Amino acid sequence: MQKRGILQAEQHECVGDSLVFRCKNLGRRMSSIFNLSGVNLDLQLGKITGIVGENGNGKTTLLNLVAGELRHDKGWLAYPLFNPAKKNWVNIKRSVAYIPQNLKPLVGINQVRQQLLFTGALKGLSPNASRQMCDFVVNRLGLQNEVGKLWSELSTGFRLRFELAKQLMWQPKLLVLDEPLANLDIKSQMKFLVDIKNLAQTASHAMAIIISSQNIYEVEKVADKVIFLKGGAPVEDELVNTQKNYRCYEVDVDKNADELKAGLEGIHIIEIKDNSFYKLVYTGQETSAAILLHRLAGSGITVKYFRDITDSSRMYFEK
Predict the structure, then answer these.
(1) Residue 159 confidence (pLDDT) above 50
(2) Residue 1: what pLDDT?
(3) What is the Cα 45 distance to its own chain's centre?
(4) CA–CA separation, 49 vs 191, rounded Å?
(5) DSSP one-letter string for 138-176
(6) How far apart are CA 308 and CA 318, in angstroms?
(7) Which tens digits make up the pLDDT trace of 245-265?
(8) Is it the case that residue 4 has pLDDT exceeding 50?
(9) 155-160 contacts at long range (C-beta below 8 A, 24 or more positions apart)
(10) Among 108, 195, 219, 268, which residue's CB has the most CB atoms within a 10 Å radius?
(11) Bridge partners of 52?
(12) Rounded to an integer, what distance in angstroms lies between the CA atom of residue 220 and that of residue 308?
């Protein structure tokens, strides 16, 4: 629990009807060899922020700070929307929902519907309001056929959706998700991401959502902004804010790098990197995806996979 005075921010910094969370130079020393530092972040209603980076670079630490599960020791943070003047941590926690990567199994009340109703009661909902909200979230998240099951009978995907339903029972303003896609198959990942995108923008109860994940491309599809952490600090967004003189394509072909380069004769190739299962083809800025694919087809090179990653956070892993 944070003590009084920890949320240090000048009131003129906390403006805007949709600004749920703001931090400046936020950080936390975790050990003698690792620090999270220099995080500047705004989270707004209806917007999704993605946090990506290699393991051990501070994603979970940052989410714990945002969710109030961990105390910061650098910079400041504030929750302007629901805590504009009085820095009351109890009130803040009432509007922040946090779903960790490792979900805890239910104890005591095992049936899904009973647990949802119990959660509503804990959050102060009347029995009637709790039943109405339970019906709403069950239908909203497609849990109709699962609601009478025990926790042990739920698949990994439905356990996550059930945990999300529990959090939605009390209509939080900020939803913090730590690696929710880690244990899901690709179909479940897509369904979950579509759901949180729709939930963030629900007219009657918009939320700010922050999500960490190793599934970069999938998160980029739904996130309004993606932050890359490296060495415990955000990497400056040079991929977006600077003019690029190249394009980068991730491809899987039935040729080695030399054969691929030969097949792309006539294309301005800057470099071809052999990167595990894929090759990274750096071309001149003038070479569009259509041009490159046309040349590959003309050379008789079989393309198994192709993606333009010039503007993707994936590029940070190559720098």
Answers:
(1) yes
(2) 39
(3) 15
(4) 18
(5) HHHTT-TTTTTSBGGGS-HHHHHHHHHHHHHTT--SEEE
(6) 14
(7) 899 999 999 899 999 999 999
(8) no
(9) 156/183, 156/184, 156/188, 157/184, 157/185, 157/188, 157/191, 157/192, 159/103, 160/99, 160/103, 160/184, 160/188, 160/192
(10) 219
(11) 228
(12) 13
Torsion of CA 137, 140, 142, 144, to 10 degrees: 50
Radius of gyration of the chain (CA): 23
CA atoms of 65 and 282, how far apart (whole Å): 38
Strand partners, 233: 230
Give how far Cα 124 sits from Cα of 117, 129, 173, 270, Å: 11, 10, 16, 62
pLDDT at 108: 65
Query: 153-181 b/e with 16+ CB inside 10 Å = b?
Result: ebeebbbbbbbbbbbbbbbbbbbbbbbbb
Can you say how many angstroms the Cα of residue 249 is from the centroid of all Cα atoms in its chain? 24
Q: At what angle do helices 112-122 and 127-140 cross, to 10 degrees?
A: 130
Per-residue pLDDT of 61-82, as tens digits, reads 999 999 999 999 999 999 988 7
Residue 9 tokens read as 């921010």
Long-range contacts of 267-274 (CB under 8 A, 24+ apart): 267/291, 267/292, 267/295, 270/246, 273/318
Ranges assigned E (strand) in 164-207: 174-178
CB 200 within 8 A of CB 209: yes
Contact between 111 and 148 (Cβ < 8 Å): yes
Predicted confidence at residue 86, as pLDDT, reads: 61
Task: Report the alpha-carbon distance of residue 267 to residue 170 in Å, rounded.
Answer: 56
SS3 151: helix
Residues in the chain: 319
**129's tokens:** 């309001």
Q: Does an H or E element contain 284, and which?
A: strand 278-284
Count of other CB atoms within 10 angstroms of residue 38: 14
